[in-house]
Design a protein that fits this description.
The complex is a heterodimer of chains A (359) and B (309).
Chain A (H helix, E strand, L loop, with lengths): L1 H33 L4 H13 L2 H26 L7 H18 L5 H30 L3 H21 L5 H6 L27 H18 L1 H11 L1 H6 L4 H28 L10 H11 L7 H22 L4 H34 L1
Chain B lengths: L6 H30 L7 H19 L2 H25 L4 H22 L24 H5 L4 H19 L1 H11 L1 H6 L4 H27 L11 H11 L4 H23 L6 H18 L19
Helix pairs in contact in B: 1-6, 1-9, 1-10, 1-11, 2-3, 2-4, 2-9, 2-10, 3-4, 3-9, 6-7, 7-9, 10-11, 10-12, 11-12
Classes of the chains: A mainly alpha (359), B mainly alpha (309).
Chain lengths: 359, 309
């Protein structure tokens, strides 16, 4: 009987993200209706846009890739009880470092460019997240604020580099002065997985990283300690775990993942560093991670789902003139609903425990 | 370099700095009340965007500026109620729910802007209102006393906020709710009600901050026009040590550096202005490191439930 109840609680908790998405879509339908758009037509265009053609399907995976990588970072951070809002900045510095590395070695073999490029991105993202982590560990500075500040600093750094030292010489020659880097050497491009589509090997990298993060969190001492700190910092401290150190590490690793997302975007999609490379993934990765219940493997289908929303929204915008900004609003609602639904699950567990104590 | 540091230019930077501080001030003063009561509202930027849109929409349709301000505050009120409900009743993790509210505001304001075919042309915003006598003072008059009414109100709110917080019963309740909610509760203060009040007030201020941008400063609405200004406002509350005066100093610092950077661009002075823009962010981090965290409300971002469990 008791086990049945626990099982029910578990499945309820696994179902809440789905309910949250359905609820968000329902609210979205009401908003569309109020704007005199037929919600069925709009959502129909959205679904068709995401799944209607092989190209679209491939595009879903292209968008899901950075979402998954950022989401994995969010899993590590949130599991460690720290909040990383700095995904945007970490993506930017990751992308910058990758672009700088590959542009500096135009003659290097592909393997050096790809592996080196991604390591540079991970390093840069790790530094960006690690700064927030170190400041929290050493001085107790709120990591939400530092990650936000580091976002702004990264954006300005990119502005500066892409208009100055890293600007494409062609832009200077033509006098157009568009803020972007030169095209990366072709050998550094991530190989295409399916011809005639934009799907690149970054998707495989992301899935491998999901498994790596799973192993890290559940099969290593480091991961165990990060999760222990996140579950109950007091208890972890009494167990002899140095809480600030593991919080800082969680932020650092979170940054590593977001930095890799930046690398993969540059190496797989844009093939150069330019404005808007972060594309809001720093925030939507949070949504995907929450939807996946902060489980690295759960983040895989979650990022595919939110990737399909992003791709479908483009079609919806073109076909029925519903701005894709709708998806941002829906993402926001999903976050609100998921974090709010926690209390239902918590209360239920509390009631059960209280009942157990009485009997 | 010499071209930059002439008296008229410096006065111009000071003038713009005072002007540009307005949205920071409204948003950060409101957020300060929310945080003093124990709630971090990270959704400020989204609320500002909605407020900016609402104000611009109403003004471009009716031409009535006051109505625009009211619309922005009403939108802020509604979003504040959502944040209050989520953080007080549902006791959700505030850092994450704030991001949810931000994304919601960001998306909805763009959606409405595109779908309601709002004019993309500038409107007639709040006119400059020179204060008699004071505005005639040499130099100082130009810098401080030739702004529009929203600017004056923002700065006037600083002493008002300090007075309410430190010298009224309400202020005492707010501080108690943020410092020791259990103690406040045992003395008959409804922590929930105080937090509802503060979060909702803060959100109304965020809405007003948005209006001060779209119908007071820029007189336009653009998608994501705040570009993270609301997040800075949240940081300014920490920067300013949870005091109105500190918040004002922080707001002025940020806006002055922004104004300086604009001048540098206009004058095409060869210093990397993008690097100059980083300065306030780095300064803020430095201030957070060096700041006296003793002042931080002890129960900040901790949900409170009345000992039922």
């Amino acid at each position: 009987m008791q086990r049945a109840k626990v099982l029910f609680e578990r499945s309820l908790s696994a179902l809440t993200p789905f309910l949250a998405v359905l609820l968000a879509l329902a609210v979205g339908a009401i908003m569309l209706f109020a704007l005199k758009v037929d919600p069925i037509t709009a959502y129909g265009a959205l679904i068709e846009g995401a799944f209607g053609s092989p190209f679209a399907l491939a595009q879903v995976l292209v968008k899901a890739t950075p979402l998954l990588l950022v989401g994995l970072g969010i899993c590590i951070a949130f599991r460690g009880g720290v909040i990383n809002i700095g995904g945007e900045g970490q993506i930017i510095v990751g992308a910058l470092a990758t672009a700088a590395f590959t542009l500096a070695l135009p003659q290097a073999p592909a393997i050096v460019l790809l592996v080196g490029g991604m390591l540079c991105g991970m390093l840069a993202g790790g530094i960006w997240g690690g700064i927030a982590g170190a400041l929290k560990a050493r001085f107790g500075v709120n990591e939400i604020l530092t990650t936000i500040m580091m976002n702004a600093i990264a954006a300005q750094l990119a502005n500066f580099l892409l208009r100055g030292p890293m600007i494409d010489p062609i832009e200077v020659k033509n006098g157009t002065m568009l803020a972007q880097s030169a095209r990366l050497p072709e050998l550094s491009w991530l190989p295409k997985l399916v011809p005639q589509t934009l799907l690149h090997a970054g998707a495989i990298v992301a899935v491998i990283m999901a498994v790596v993060v799973y192993i890290l969190l559940w099969r290593t001492v480091l991961g165990y300690r990060i999760r222990a700190v996140g579950l109950n910092a007091e208890a972890a401290r009494f167990a002899g775990i140095r809480v600030p150190v593991y919080q800082a590490l969680a932020l650092l690793l979170s940054g590593v993942m977001a930095g890799l997302a930046g690398s993969v975007e540059v190496l797989g999609v844009s093939h150069r560093m330019m404005d808007g490379v972060s594309g809001g993934y720093g925030f939507s990765g949070i949504v995907a991670a929450l939807f996946g219940k902060l489980h690295p493997l759960g983040a895989i289908p979650a990022s595919a789902l939110f990737g399909s929303l992003l791709v479908g929204a483009d079609k919806m915008q073109r076909a029925v003139q519903v701005p894709s900004a709708l998806i941002d609003a829906l993402n926001g609602l999903v976050v609100l609903f998921v974090v709010s639904s926690d209390i239902l699950v918590r209360r239920r567990a509390q009631r059960r425990k209280a009942a157990e104590r009485k009997s | 370099m010499n071209e930059l540091f002439t008296v008229p230019v410096l006065l111009g930077i000071l003038y713009s700095g005072v002007r540009l501080a307005t949205p920071y001030l409204y948003a950060a003063l409101g957020e300060m009340f929310a945080q003093r009561s124990g709630v971090v509202n990270l959704g400020v930027d989204g609320i500002m965007l909605m407020g900016a849109f609402a104000a611009f929409f109403v003004v471009s349709n009716t031409g009535n500026l006051l109505l625009g301000v009211l619309a922005a505050m009403l939108v802020g009120l509604l979003m504040g109620l959502i944040m209050s409900f989520v953080s007080v009743n549902l006791q959700a993790e505030q850092g994450i729910s704030g991001i949810g509210l931000y994304l919601f505001g960001l998306g909805l304001s763009s959606l409405l802007f595109k779908k309601l075919s709002v004019s993309t042309r500038a409107i007639e915003g709040f006119p400059a209102l020179p204060i008699p006598v004071l505005s005639d003072l040499p130099e100082i008059g130009d810098v401080f006393f030739k702004h529009n009414i929203l600017v004056y109100i923002a700065f006037a709110l600083v002493p008002v906020a300090a007075f309410v917080l430190n010298h009224t019963t309400l202020g005492l309740k707010v501080r108690a709710a943020g410092m020791k909610p259990e103690a406040a509760d045992s003395l008959g203060v409804s922590v929930a009600r105080v937090r509802y009040l503060c979060v909702t007030f803060g959100s109304m201020m965020a809405g007003l901050a948005g209006a001060s941008l779209s119908i007071g400063l820029i007189n336009l609405f653009q998608e994501n026009m705040t570009s993270g200004l609301g997040f800075i406002a949240v940081a300014l509350v920490y920067f300013g040590g949870w005091t109105p005066l500190g918040v004002m100093i922080g707001a002025l610092l940020f806006s002055m550096v922004n104004a300086l950077q604009l001048w540098v661009q206009v004058k095409a002075i060869p210093i990397p202005s993008d690097l100059a823009v980083m300065l306030p962010y780095i300064l803020t981090i430095a201030a957070l490191v060096l700041g006296r965290r003793a002042r931080q409300p002890a129960a900040l971002s901790k949900p409170f439930s009345r000992g039922e469990n």
